[in-house]
Amino acid sequence: MKVTIERAALLKSLGHVQSVVERRNTIPILANVLLEAGNGKLGLTATDMDLTIVEDVEAEITEPGATTAPAHTLYDIVRKLPDGAQVELSVQGDTGQMQLTAGRSQFQLATLPKEDFPSTGTEELPQSFKLHAEELRNLVDRTRFAISTEETRYYLNGIYMHATKSSGQPVLRGVATDGHRLARFEVDLPDGAADMPGIIVPRKTVGELRKLIDESEAGITVSLSDTRITFQFDSTVLSSKLIDGTFPDYERVIPSGNDKTMSVDTKAFAKAVDRVATISTEKSKAVKLSIAESTLTLSATSPENGSANEELEIGYDGDAIDIGFNARYLVDIAERIDGAQAQFSLSDSASPTIVRDPQDGSALYVLMPMRV
């Protein structure tokens, strides 16, 4: 194999694939990236057995061939090369080494046989549809912060995506919850998605997908089965196993009888919560909201640090109420509301609260209160 490629192009592709590779691997081949040269392109593949990324990048192929090289080491070398450098990758015979040359820099990297690299599989994916990059970006951004990190509740360790109806209109809905808060976001149902099964996309896959969306303005082709999903970009395919579990009936935790409505300036609220929470204990991060006509008082106390309170002007049409929340959860939700106002629908101090952006009906957040 002998390939010449521009440093920036190689770095971009290596940046995508190396982040899939786990830092600690018990199986040596999984620490490597598969490099395949042919037809004017260099193909890069990395996998952790659950998540696979394949990317093609244009290159000058002097001699077609394939090998595997340590993903993180190769990425670090290319990252440190000067801008504009031409990088030559070559493997001669069965030496077990790949030579990387760029200007006066030369590196010899240990390789492993390409035959040892796991097959990435070509499972049949019966459902396929296209999503705009902006739609998928919004769905991920508005929900992923609520994904659970508790491994014992593995069925909550991802975003639940399914086709349903909202106000009589067919939608593709994404939902994430960790038991303390819930985030729900909808986009118009794409053509071809009506019969898709309900699926749970794992947290790591969501993270890698989000990085790729940033570099794409075109449509993204989504193909899936009950057990696997692929996201196809221009020259990159991200393929992942789905979480094998049943997502809970989230509709049951969305309250319907919350009759007290508070409107507050979104940015002012987020900043005030953050300031007041400086006092609260690191463990609980509790902030109390005392809501009365036209005034919201935020307060926090802790035995070690003292106390804090701050008042905000609000619109409110109900009886006075005191309710406590985790400050970080409040800020997380406020940061995802684009509108000038955030709308809180409350019932009482012990019941879940709904938070919405009045300007955008596609997102809904539910927050469990806490004792303060």
Helix content: 10-25%
Mass-distribution shape = elongated
Name the structural class: alpha+beta
How far the N terminus sits from the C terminus, by CA atoms, comes to: 65 Å
Radius of gyration: 25 Å
**Number of extended strands:** 25
Note the beta-strand portion: 35-45%
Mean pLDDT: 95
Main sheet summary = 12 strands, antiparallel
Total DSSP helices:
6
Name the poorly predicted regions: none
Strand order of the largest sheet: 14-11-12-13-25-24-23-18-21-20-19-22
What topology emerges from the helices and strands here?
Elements: E1 2-6, H1 7-18, E2 32-38, E3 41-47, E4 51-58, E5 60-63, E6 65-70, H2 71-80, E7 86-90, E8 97-102, E9 105-110, E10 127-132, H3 133-143, E11 158-166, E12 169-177, E13 181-188, E14 199-202, H4 203-213, E15 219-224, E16 228-232, E17 236-241, E18 260-265, H5 266-276, E19 286-292, E20 295-302, E21 306-316, E22 321-326, H6 327-334, E23 341-346, E24 353-357, E25 360-367
Antiparallel strand pairs: 1-5, 1-7, 2-3, 2-6, 3-4, 4-17, 7-8, 8-9, 10-15, 11-12, 11-14, 12-13, 13-25, 15-16, 16-17, 18-21, 18-23, 19-20, 19-22, 20-21, 23-24, 24-25
Helix pairs in contact: 1-2, 5-6
